[in-house]
Amino acid sequence: MNHDEINQSIIDRELFTGDEESTYYNLYDYAVDNYEDPYLLFKLAIKGYYQKLYKWTDAETEKFIEDNKESSVKWTDGIQEYYYDWGKGKNKITEDYLHVPNLDHIDPHSLSKDNRPENFRIRCRRLNENRGNTNSDKERRATIIDMFNDMDLSSQIDILKYLETIKKQ
Fold first, then answer.
1. How does pLDDT run across 29-41, given as a tens digit for each residue?
2. Higher pLDDT, residue 79 or 72
3. Taking residues 10-26, what's their average pLDDT?
4. Strand pairing partners for 74?
5. Which 3 state secondary structure label does DSSP give 81?
6. Under DSSP, is residue 42 helix (H, G, I), strand (E, B) or coil?
7. Which residues contact 145 (CB under 8 A, 6 or more apart)?
8. Do 50 and 56 touch, CB atoms closer than 8 A?
9. In this structure, what DSSP letter does residue 40 have?
10. Rounded-to-integer distance, Cα 169 and Cα 165, Å
11. What is d(CA 105, CA 121) in angstroms, rounded to the nearest whole number?
C-alpha cells in the first residue's frame, strides 16, 4: 500500500470489538467504555504502554494526553501527510515506520535520562530512529546535509520548495 492508501485505511478503521489482550494493553474495559472516542487508540497506547514504561502518575499521563491529542493524529513532511497508526494487535493497520508513532525524548535519554512527560513529543518511528542522540543544532545540521546529499535531485528540489514556504511564514 502507498501512503495515501495507508492513510485512508487508518481513517476508515473499524475497531476490533473482541476481548484480546494483545489488542488493548489489558485495558479492554476502558476501550469498551470509550469506544466512540476518536483518540481511543492513542490513549490506550499512552495509558497501557508508555505510562508503565516511564512510571508516570495518572495525572502526568492525563496531562500528556490532553497536551498531545492534536499531534497524535498525523504529521507532515511538507509534501505528504502521514496518519499515525496507534493500533495494536487486531487494530493494527501497518508497520510502515512513517505511520508508526513513537514517543521521542526531546533531550535524548542517553544524555539526560529525563523520562518526565514534558521531555516527550510524538514522532513517527522512522524520524525518531533517524534522530538518534543528536542534541545540538550542529549535529542536526550535519545530519540533514548528509541526508540531503543522498537524495535524488527531484527530492532535493521538493525540500528546497518546502523550505521556501517556511521562510515566507
1. 999 999 999 999 9
2. 72
3. 91
4. 83
5. strand
6. helix
7. none
8. yes
9. H
10. 7
11. 7
